[in-house]
Amino acid sequence: MEFESYSVILAPAVEQELAEIYAYFSAQFSEEIAKRRIGMIVQALESLQIFPERGFNADNRFGKQIDPPHLTRGYVIGKDYIALYRVVENEVRVGHLFATKSDYVKLLK
Q: Which UniProt keywords apply (predicted)?
């Protein structure tokens, strides 16, 4: 059985967030811990290549359409991050990455 594979594309804002996470963990802990943290996040995002529909319906959860006209899905990474993305044809477009402790609902308004 062969699965369809999707390309995962990170928005510049997501790449910036990853850089900030790396800088924070490097400063607070060590570069090795920062590399592991970023590796875990990137691996989770890349796993969306196989089954992008696994994420929850973020539009319903937040009570509005985040990125019209596409359905926005949310994917919880570990216990610490939420990625918001949309599936367009054979691409998974990751538009946002938030710490679960942030007020991400307010950030989307």
A: Toxin-antitoxin system
Q: What is the largest CA-CA distance in the chain?
A: 45
Q: What is the pLDDT of residues 50-92, one digit of tens each?
A: 999 999 999 998 888 988 899 999 999 999 999 999 999 999 9
Judge: domain 7-107, CATH 3.40.250.10.
Answer: no
Report the DSSP pairing between strands 72-77 and 81-88: antiparallel
- Using CA atoms, how far residue 98 sits from 5, 6, 109, in Å, is 25, 22, 14
* CA distances in angstroms from 68 to 8, 48, 54, 63, 91, listed in the order given: 19, 21, 20, 13, 16
Structure tokens at 96: 């946002």
